[in-house]
From TrEMBL:
Listed InterPro entries: Formylmethanofuran_DH_suC, Glu_synth_asu_C_sf
Highest taxon listed in the record's lineage: Bacteria
Protein name: Formyltransferase/hydrolase complex Fhc subunit C
Gene Ontology biological process: methanogenesis
Lineage: Bacteria, Pseudomonadati, Planctomycetota, Planctomycetia, Planctomycetales
GO molecular function, one term: transferase activity
Name of the gene this protein is made from: fhcC
Keywords: Hydrolase, Transferase
Species: Rubinisphaera italica
Hydrolase found in the keyword field: yes
Amino acid sequence: MITITPKKNLESFVELPSQLSELLINAEIDQILKIKIRNGRSERTFQELFDLHENTHPTIEAEVLFEGDFSKVHGIGRNWNEGKFHVLGNTGDCLGEQMTGGTLVVEGNTGDCTARGMSGGRLIIQANAGDHLGSFCPGSMKGMTGGEVFVQGSVGQFCGHRMRRGTIIIGESSGSRLGYEMLAGTIVCCGPIPDTVGLNMVRGTILILNPANLSAMSHLEEAVQYEPAVFRLLLKYLNLNKMLPTSIDPTTSHFTRYLGDMTMDKRGEVLIAS
């Protein structure tokens, strides 16, 4: 296992390059130490900012372990595509950006734009995530197109912005504009929701497991009382994989179905547990 720790408290933000993930997967230590990374307005080598050594951890099995405070480090796990990546501590923005496979686990909070452009793999955040989770990369019109994201805590604003495929599970509350301009995919929120859910959504499903009243949301239209078998399977799957909070009943099967956005032909759906 490759373990990486900061040499000291970082005063300026660090932007990790996309090729770092491939070097970590292949354990190319010499190239990793020499790779150039952006640190504030200057450029430094990896070994100037971080310590790297190969060892084992008593409780963690992973190919790569980041241990320490990485809250000013952006792009951790960018383009990750196989194996297990573990972070002990907080991270900066763009965690798991354009991730295509493998598993990334964070025992801490993450910054904004987590899982941006993600297309595969599994991302588990054991605390809170910032704004624009699962949204789109600059120059793209689509957010995440695949994979699974589980946030045990809360998420910020614009979660699932222009999301195209994949699944996002939120263990606690969501910020405003949940599922904004959502194109497809599934979002499951287990805690309180904001006053704007599914605004301008084209397709997709937002599943709210915490009872809520959407009658004041004029962009949604109440349709039917609903008992879809597929969501019983989804909740069972999440429960078996320990991706569902203990406060949520995995046998929940009765929902009120809302259609929306009404200005977008009402092809999306918001389901509220009832």
